[in-house]
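G., before I forget:
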Amino acid sequence: MNVFAGVGGGSAATDAAPAVGTGKALLELTPHKIAVCHLVQVFAPPAQAGGDVVPPFPFESLAHHNRLGLFLFTLTRSCEDFLEPPLEEFLRQLKAVDDLTNGWFCEQLTSTLSALNSPDDLFNFFDKLRGVLTAPEGASAEDIFLDPNSQLGVFLRCCILAFNSMTFEGVCHLLADIVMYCNSTDASYDMAEDENFNNEVGSMMDADIGSQADMFDKYHRGFSSGSHMGESSSALTRAPMLPYDSDDANTSKADDNPTCLRSRWQLEAYLNQQADILEKDPSSVPLNSFNATMTKLRTLAPELHRVQFLQYLNALCHDDYVTSVDNLHRYFDYSAGMQGLFGRSVSPVQDIVVGKYESALLCLGNLHCYFGHPKKALEAFAEAVRVSQMNNDDSCLAYVLGAISNLLSKIGMSNTVGIISSPYSIGTNIGLGTPLSIQQQLLVLLKRSLKRADMLKLPSLLSFDHLSLAKFDLKHVQRPLVSFGPNASTKLRTCPVDVCKNLRLSSRVLTDFGTDVLSTSNDNGSFSTSWLRNLSAATGSWRSSSVKSTKLHNNDFDNFHYHAQPCPVPAPVLQLAGSACLLRATAWEHYGSAPMVRMNALVYATCFADASSSSEMSLAYVKLIQQLAVFKGYSAAFCALKLAEKKFPSSTSSHIQLLRMQILHERALHRYNTVSTLHLAAAVANSLFSTCYKYNLQVENASVLLLLAEIYKKSDNAVLGLPYALASQSFCKSFNLDLLEASATLTLAELWLALGSSHAKRALSLVYQCLPMILGHGGLELRARAHITLAKCHLSDPKFSVPEDPEAVLDPLNQATEDLQVLEYHDMAAEAYYLKAMAYNHLGKLDEREEAAACFKEHITALEKPHNEEDSLVY
Amino acid sequence: MASGKETYRAELRAAARQLGERCLYSAAKWAAELLVGVEPDAAPALSCAMDPPSSSSATPAGRLLHMHRSGGSSFRPRPRPGGGGGSEAGTPLGGVSYVSTPIPDDDAFDSGGDKYLLAKTYFDCREYRRAAHVLQNQVGRKAVFLRCYALYMAGEKRKEAEMIELEGSLGKSNAVNEELVALERELSTHRRTGSIDSFGLYLYGIVLRDKGCEGLARTILVESVNSYPWNWSAWSELQSLCTSSDILNSLNLKNHWMKDFFLASAYLELKMHEEALKRYERLVGVFRCSGYIQAQIATVQYSMRDLDEAEMIFEELLRTDPFRVDSMDVYSNLLYAKESLTALSFLAHRVFLTDKYRPESCCIIANYYSLKGLHEKSVLYFQRALKLNRKYLSAWTLMGHEYVELKNTPAAIDAYRRAVDINPRDFRAWYGLGQIYEMMGMPFYALYYFRKSSHLQPDDARLWIAMAQCYESDQLQMIEEAIKCYERAEKSNDTEGIALHQLAKLHSMLGQSEKAAFYYKKDLERMEIEERQGQNFVEALLFLAKHYRSIGRFEEAEHYCTRLLDYTGPEKETAKNMLQSIKRLQSGFPSMDIDNFSL
C-alpha cells in the first residue's frame, strides 16, 4: 500500500521527543511516575558511606535485582496504551516480578505512596531521590549507583526537574492525584487469596484506603471549601466521588483514577504502533472505536497533533474519503510548521523555519492515488515538487519523485490518454521539458529519485527506488531515451541482469542500516510493551488458576514469546526487504521458474510476515496458492484458499478475491465442456493484442500471441496458428521469458503435428527441445500436454512402431493421465486415455485396452454431465 | 395600545426581579435593559415605520484580505428613531397571536427566607460554596435552585483555575466541573418528581450541555423557556445548541414574544440575515429604545455589508449608552473596514477606560493597532483576548490575518485552523487558510480550503474568484475550471467586476473571441454604469475594436476606436492606425466589388 510509502509506515519517522522550545518540563509528574521513582530508589538506593552490600537489601540475588531493573526499564518504554496503568494493575505486575520477597515491594510502595500526605512530604521525597543520582564521596567504580545517563537515570532526572519546575498548585494537584490513585485500588482486590502475600498487608491496605479517603477530601476540596466543611455538605458534594458510599460505585470508579498520560516518547511510540497495526491489518481495527480512542487521546492531549494523522490513516484504511481529506488537512495545518515527516535527515532548526507543507502535498498525492484519482494525485505531486524545490527540501523531493513513479507505474498504460494528452501534462510541469512517453517519464523520474536518495543518504527511499527500477526493468523495454534516425540502436530487451542487480541493491538496506542513520531510531518500545504484556498474561493465568506456577521462578526469558524479542531490524527496513523478496518471486514468475517463485514466496511468508502490510502478505499467499493450483491441483489450492480467506477476509483483500475467481474459472474451464466460440475468442484476442501493442506492453504481447496461436490450433487452423506461435516464441526469447517460450515451442510442435504426419519428426524435435524446461519448471497441465504431444508424435510417426518401443509411448501417457487426474482436466485426460487405448491396441493387450477405454468413457461422460459430480468446492 | 406595552413592562419588571433574586445576573440585566427599552407611551407615533425594503448598490468592499471586516452592498433603511411602529405595538407582532404565559408567583418568603437572603449575599460576593452550604436543608424550589446554581458556579470557578494549573506541554486541559455528576443526579430526580421549576430546568440544561448530552439539553431548555420565557440566558444557551436551521425548526416552542428575539438571534448566527433583520425590525416597533435590538440590527447590517447604516446605529448607540462594551467589537470591525482611524482610536480608548479585561476590548484595541499597521502589537492584544476567552472565534480569525501581515505563515495557519475547529462554519477562516496556501505557492492545496469556504457561503463572489484565481495560476493553468468559477462569481453579484473582466480575458486566451467579446461588452457596460474608467476599460475597448474589425463589422469597430481616442497612451496610437485601416478597408471593398462587376 503505497499510502504508507514515504510516511515510513509511521515508525520510520519517529523523531526524538521534540519537547524542546515549549518551555515546559519534559514530562509531567503523575502518581504512576512517582511510584516508578520510588521503585528506582529501591533498585538503586542512595549509597551509604561504606558497607554496601551487593545486591542491596531486599534482593536475594543479582538476577532478582536485574529483574526489577528490567521491569522498571520497560515501564518507562512500554507503549501499549496512552494512559498509565492504575495502581491495581501496577501492583499486579510488580508482584509478578517480585515473587521472592513475599510482596515486600508492593507493601513498601503502597505505604510510601500513602505516606505522602502533605506538599512537604513530596519535597522530601524528591530530595531523597536526588541522592540516588549522586555518587557518594569516595565511591569506587564497582559500587552500585545509578548512572545519570542511563535510561532510568534520565527518567529520574526528568522527574526531579519536573517537580522543581512545578508551581505550588501543581504540587497540590499531584498530591490529590496520588490520593485518587491509591483509592482506585478496588477493595475487591483481595490479597488474602494470594498465598504469597502477607495478610497483614492486606488489612493494612484497607485501613489505608479509609484514611486516604479523608486525605483526598482534605487535599482535593481543601482549596475552595476551606477546612470548615460541614459533614452534610461534604456528603452531598462528595457523594459521587467516593466509591464506597454510593450505589453506582463502579461507574464513578472509572472517573476516580486520574487520567494520566504517559510520557511524550511513549505516546508517540504508541501512535506509531497503532499506525503499524493499521497498515498490517486494517480490518482488525474497527473504524469507530479506533476513532473514539483517538478522540479521547485528543481531548487529553490537544497539542499532540500526530493523533490527527492517525485519524487520517484510519479513515484512509476504511475508505472514508471525506474524513481522511479533512484530517489530513487538519494535521498539516497544525503541525506542518513544526513536525515534519522526515525529521531525521533535516536539522530541527530548518524544520521550523521552512515548514513542511510539501510533505502535506506528498501525503495528499498519496491519498488521491489511493482513492484512484491519478489526475489529482499528479497535480498534488507536481505542486509538492515545486514547493520542495522552493524550500530546498531535497529529501521530500526525492520522496515525491518516488511517489510519482509509483503512481505512474500504478496507473500504468491504461490511463495514459487522459493524462498525457492533456495540455498540462506532468512532463512540462516537473521540468522534463519535452513530452515523453509515460514509460520514459517513469524511468527518468526513477533515476532522478535514485540519485537524490543516494546523495542524501535516504536508505529506505534508495531501496524503494531500486525496487521500482527492478519492477520497471521487468515489465518494460529499455530503449535509449533519445533515438533518432534509422541507425539508432533499438535493442528491445528486458534485462534480467538489471532486475537482479536492482533487487540485490534494494535489499542492501538490510545490511546498510546498521551503520546508517536508521539505527538511531530503532527502539520503538514494542519490546518493552510485549515484555509487560507477557508478564501480565503470565500473572493473569497464574492468578486465575491460583496454582503456583513454577514458570515464574525460571529465567525471565521464559515469559517471552518468540516474536516478542526485540528485532534488530526496524520494521520499515524489513518491509522493504520483504518487498524485494516478493518482487523476486514475481521476476521468477516472468522468467519462468516455478520452484523459485514458490521458494521466494515461502521465504516472504515466513520471514517477513511480522513487518508486512496486509496487501503484500495476501499477494504472497496468492502466489503460493497459484503454485498449489498448478502443481497440486485445484482441491489442494482450494483448501489453502479457504485458510487464506480466513486470514484475509475477502472484503478487504482484492488479491484473494481475484485469485478465487481465477481458480474457480480455470477449474470450470477444465472440467466442463464449454461451448466453443473460437471465432469470438479470436476476435477478442486480436483486439487485446492491438491494445497491448498500442501501450507497449511487450511482455503481455508474448502471451497474447501465444493465446492466438492456441485458439487457431483449437479451431483446426494450424496454418494460421503457426505465425503467431513463431512470433510469440521470438518475443519470449528477446524478453527472457523462458517458461513461456517453452510453452510456445510446445504449441508450435502441436501445430506442426496437426499439419500432418509428415511433420511428426520436426514436431518431435521441438518437443524434445522444450521438454527439459517444461519438466523442470512447468505446471501439471503443461507437463501433461508435453507428454501427450510426445506420445502423439510417436504414434503418428509412420516409422515408429509401438511394439518395438512401447515405453516411449506408454510412459509419457501414464505420467499425463496421472497429472490430469489431479487437475480434473477431463478433456485432456480423455485424450490421453484414448491414446493409451490405441497404444495397447497396437500391443494387443486387450485387458489394458478395455481399462483405458473405460477411463476414457468415464471422462467423456464427466465432461458432458457436469451436474452429476458433487461439488464440494463451491461455497 | 398602551395597555399592550404595559403588559410587556409588567412581565419584564417581574422577570428582572425574579431573575435577579436567583442570581441569574445577565438574564436579569437583559430583561431590565429591555424593560427600559419599551417605547414610552407619551409620544404616540404617527409616521409609517416599515418602508418596504429597497436595495441599491453602495460601498465598494474593502480589501479582499480583510473581508471579514468589509461590508457589502445591499442597503436597507431602518425605521428612523422616533418614527412609527407604535401603531402596531399593542397588537401581537406580525399578526401572530402569542400565548400569554402567566407570571409565576414567587415563593420568595417561604420558610427559611432569611437563610436564602444570606445565601444570596454570599453568592453576590462570589462565595459560592458558602452560599450552597447555607441552603443545605432547604427544600423550597427557589432555595434548591440557588444551592445547585451556587455549586455549579463553584465548580466552574474551580475548573477555570484548574485549567491553568493543569496545562501541560501537550496542552492537556481535561479540567471538568466536578459538580456536574452530582448536579445532574439531583436535578434529574427533581424533574422526575415534578418538583422543579423553569430555573431548575435551565440549570439542568446547561449541566447536560456541559456533560455533552446536547439532545437532551435542548429538550430541557425548550421545557424551561416554554414555562418561563423571560430568561434570556436559557434562550441563548438554546441558541448555541442550534447549529443548523434544521435543528432550529425542529424545536417545539411556545409562541411567546420572547421567541421572536430568540429566532432573530438564531437567524443571525446561522447567517440567515434577511430573516433576522425582518424579525428585529418588527421587534423594534415595540422596544424602540432597546440598545440590544439596535446593536443586533447593526450587526445584521454589517454582516450584510451595509456599513454606513450599521455605523449610524452604532454611533447612536454609543451616544445613548457610552459605557457599552457588548457588540462594540463588531463596531470596531466596521470602523476597520471603513478605515476610520480616528473613530476607531476613540472607541478603543473608551472601552479601555470602561473595562480593559473584556475580550471585546482587547479585540477593539487589536483592530486599532492592525489598522495602524502595528501588527505585532495587534497580535499581542488578540492573544490577550483569546486568553480571556479561548473560544472567541473572530479573534482567532483576525489574529490569523495579523500573522499573515507579519509573514508568519505557520502561526497564521494555526490561528485560522483553531478558528475553524471551534466553528467549522466560519468561512472567513477557511478562506484565510486558502489564501495563505495560495501565497505559499500551493494553489492546488489551497483549492480544498476555498472549496470549503464557498460551500459555506455559495453566494459570495469573492470566494469563487479566489478559487478561480487558483485554477488560473501559472502552476495549475486549469483554464476551463477557472472559467466555471468566474461564471459562478459573475452570477453571484460580483461588485468589483473582476469576474467579467477575467472571463473576457480567459475566453480571448482560449481563442473564443465571440464569448470574449460578449463578456468585454458586459464589462464595459458595467464600468459605464459605475463610471469607472481605467486600464480595464481601455483593454475592453481595444479588444472589441479589434474583434469587430476582424469579423468585418466595421461600424462597431469604428465606434470603439473612436472611444479609444479619448485616452492617452499607446492604445490611442493603435486606435488611430486601426481607424485608418478600417477606412481603407471600407473604401477598398466596395470598389473591389465594382471592379468585379465591371469585369
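The first helix of chain A runs from residue 31 to 43. Chain A touches chain B through 58 residues (CB under 8 Å).

More on Monday.
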